[in-house]
Amino acid sequence: MRLRTPLLRRAARITPCLLACAFTVFALSACSSEPTSATGEVVHVTVKDFHIQLSRTHVRAGEVRLVVENRGPDTHEVLVARTSEALPLRPDNITVDEDALEPVTLGDVEAESPGTVEVLRLKLRPGRYELFCNMAGHYLGGVRARLVVS
Fold first, then answer.
1. Do residues 66 and 37 make contact, with C-beta atoms less than 8 angstroms apart?
2. pTM
3. What is the β-pairing status of strands 117-124 and 40-48?
4. Is pLDDT above 80 for 146?
């Protein structure tokens, strides 16, 4: 088949190039291993009974977005405190003393029901951060994780 007009001949040459470029952009965007958004680092936080799992435990300082998903049958919360020490307990010895942590607590999010997904945006400086659930017995039961920011 012969293309008779110069415009159709040009379009026939350009279209495969455009398709190749579009495919390359799509393929490269799909290859990124851990998301980094325009607003900084992204950490997926999965909370289930007596466990918090982070998609990554080290991030760069600056904007960090925590995407918290409750996969357990109970209500959970995630508090973020900048500390390198063990967290202080209340006199009941079951929950963390949030009042004592007030100066170093950067934020919190409640994943109230199973399947809930919440996002917490923070600006983090270099250091160690503890992510934990402070529902009765959850912190002592292991619902905590450490995030290192460099």
1. no
2. 0.73
3. unpaired
4. yes
